[in-house]
Structure formats: structure tokens, C-alpha cells
């Protein structure tokens, strides 16, 4: 048994869906369980339609056109689409009348994207002679907490999912399951979502709970690359990478997998493979528990752009323990997560997401420290075996010195698989290119 996950761009239109169907068919003898995202930018369109509804207008023309045109081209029935779109319109009418949009309603709203795509793909596959059955994730056991828009799966899913898919596993039901990614329900029956990009977690959760041979996530490039190919044209395939390295990649800007997607497969040591839907025979990238062979120490270079750097200097000469405890408590109070950090006894430099409003945080910190915030910063991360940090840093820093880049922060992650540096936004492309060249091209 395998899990095959296709993201939004893989099912963005009729042509893509036909292609995906042909890939699924090719793997039919491996007993696939398919996980899908919403078509193309449907999730964004749905969120836009909510904003429009708040202003008193119900408009789903983009969503309607995309799904009806696709159904026409695929020559499948529009019945399921009709009924979902009617429900969607009713919901938006409600939002437009109440002029109110809670997180719970938002989750109900965005759920239509995935619910539409699985019905269409299952129907098309069946029409083409590969019997398939769509499932809304809750039908096969996706239970979560009620943290709408970023829900956490309940531990009971480990037994609920195998129960939900048991008939397929035991060959009682032969239709290939086509399951909505991203979605779950809480114990009160409200629809929840697992955070943007959450379909990866849906896929790895199913894969782990079902103990499949492999979870495949299908992309448009040859698996995981050594850098973003839009920045570095010399970027090449990373054949093998560990769960920890892949998690760091996800946290530090690579679009490979949702950061939370690694935790279920890490538990069961289930292999994940990132495949290219345009190059089916390419092995892609394998994500494994640990490296068994000796490899060169650097895996990839990634970047997170437009972050803010905060420099905090103690005004009270507190000891480091009290000082840090106080600072972290203020961050906790404002629910602001810190990405990269470097500290000395009386000062701390750290980074946070670029879009956050820091007013309250800075006010609270002003009692014990002077703070300065610099926007337009970026984090560049070397995903590597940090056991070789001196050699990696030596080479990297020399090459950066040659192009005149001096990092604001240098930090080696506790997970021992990353070295991150913070630099100016204007230097980020040069920085990635330079480090890539130093580690992969010479
Ligand atoms: N459709 C959702 C999103 O766009 C979930 C996903 O694609 O994984 O975030
Ligand atoms: Mg999407």
C-alpha cells in the first residue's frame, strides 16, 4: 500500500487532472490511497469570497467557472459540484447578512475546495476505468481539536484511520480512496483545517497510521532540490534526506513539505518520497529516518525572505537567566514565535515573521530593555550535518566575505542539521547563490 498526495497545482485544471489520473492508474497495483488539495488557487479564492461577502456581496464566479469548465472538459457529472456550490452560496449569503466571519466559519468555507476536488477526480478516474471512491477526511477518521484554521489531530486518529480504511486494506472494497487533504472535524462535528499547506500532514498521517510502504508527495520538480531553482539555476536533486533535515527545510523556506508533516512518519519510520509528476521515472527524493551511507555534509540552501530582526539589550543588568526568562515570557504573552536567535549575557538578537505587529511586544519589553527592530531581513539556512560545522562555516563565510556580505546573526540549530544566518533582504539572492556555489558547484 502507498499514499499518493497531489497538491493544488497538480490538479489545477482538466489537463493536470488527466495527468494525475494517469499517474494514479500507473500505480494502481500498489494499492494507493490518494490525498488531494483543492484545485489551483481555490483556497485563496474561497478566502477572497469571504471578504467580498463581508462587504455584502456573494460572488463565487471564479470558483464556479474553474470547476464547471473542468468538469465539462473531463466530461464528468456536475451533480456533486452543483450541490456543494449551492451549499457554498448559502454559507456566503449567511456571512454577507451577518457581516461576521469567525475562524470556525472560515474552516467550513475553505473546506469546499478539497471537497470539490476529490469528487471530481474520483468521478473522472471511475469514468476512465479505474474505480475510485471519494472521502471527506472525517469519513475515514480525521478527528482534531477545535483550534480552527490550525487544528491539531487527535491521537485517536492512529486507530480511527485504519478502521476507516479497513475495507480497502482487506480488499473488501476495491475502489481507490481519494481523500480530502487539509480537513478534519472536531468532536462537536465542526469542520476544521490543519493550516495552509496541511494536505501534506493528511498524507503522512494516513501513511503512518496505515503503515504503508511509502508516502509519495508529487510536485512539479525533481523532488527536493539543493536550492530554489528560481534563484539558483544550477540547483540539483537531493537524492536522500532525513526527516530532521526535511523538517528544517520546511521551516526555513523550502516549499517541499509542510513543517508539521514529518511527525507521524517519524513515529513509524515510514519512508516519504518526493516525486516529479512531469518526470515520473525520476526517483525523486527519499526522506528517511537516518543516513546509512556517508554523504557530503551539506544537503541544501534555503531562504526565508522579509523577516524582522529584533535586537534587545538589557537596561537592568539582569543575569542572563532572569533576562531571557523575562523576554521569552513576553513573546509567549503575545504569541509571537521566534525563528533564529543568538544571545549574550545582556543582549539578544532574534528574528520573527515579517508581517507581525510588534507594538504590544515592544511596549512590554521597554521596561527592561532597549529594542531596535530592523525590517527587510532574510534568513538563509544551510541544511547540513552540523558535526562538520567548522568546515561548512569556513567555506561558506569565506565565500560570503568575497562578495562583501556580513551576516547579522549566525546560529547553529540545536537539531544539528542547520546553520542559519541572517542578512539584508537586498543581499539574499547573492547570499544563496554564493553559498550554493561554495557547497555544490565547486
Ligand atoms: N488547499 C490548502 C491550501 O492551499 C491545503 C493544501 O493545499 O495543502 O493551503
Ligand atoms: Mg493549495
How would you describe this structure to a colleague?
The chain has helices at 14-26, 42-54, 61-74, 79-98, 103-127, 157-164, 166-169, 199-209, 243-251, 262-268, 320-333, 359-365, 389-402, 428-441, and strands at residues 2-6, 32-36, 132-135, 176-180, 183-185, 191-193, 214-219, 240-242, 272-276, 285-288, 298-314, 341-343, 347-353, 369-384, 409-412, 418-424. The chain has 14 helices and 16 strands. The chain has 442 residues and is an alpha/beta fold. Helix 2 (42-54) packs parallel to helix 4 (79-98), helix 4 packs antiparallel against helix 5 (103-127) and helix 13 crosses helix 14 (428-441). The two termini are 41 Å apart. The chain folds into two domains: 2-212, Acetylglutamate kinase-like (Carbamate kinase, 3-Layer(aba) Sandwich), CATH 3.40.1160; 298-441, VC0802-like (2-Layer Sandwich). The radius of gyration is 23 Å and the shape is globular. The model has no long low-confidence stretch (mean pLDDT 94). Aspartic acid binds at residues 7-8, 37-38, 43, 113, 181-182, 196-199.
Give me the side-by-side strand order of the main sheet.
3-4-2-1-7-9-10-8
Profile the largest sheet. Answer: 8 strands, mixed
The domain count comes to 2
CATH homologous superfamily identity of the largest domain: Acetylglutamate kinase-like
The coarse silhouette is globular
Q: In the CATH classification, which architecture of the largest domain applies?
A: 3-Layer(aba) Sandwich
Mean pLDDT: 94
Regarding quaternary structure, how should these chains be classified? single chain
Helix content: 25-40%
Number of strands: 16
The structure class reads: alpha/beta
Poorly predicted runs: none
Q: What is the CATH third-level topology name of the largest domain?
A: Carbamate kinase
Give the distinct bound molecules. aspartic acid, magnesium ion
Element-level helix/strand string: EHEHHHHEHHEEEHEEHHEEEHEEHEHEEH
Terminal CA distance reads: 41 Å
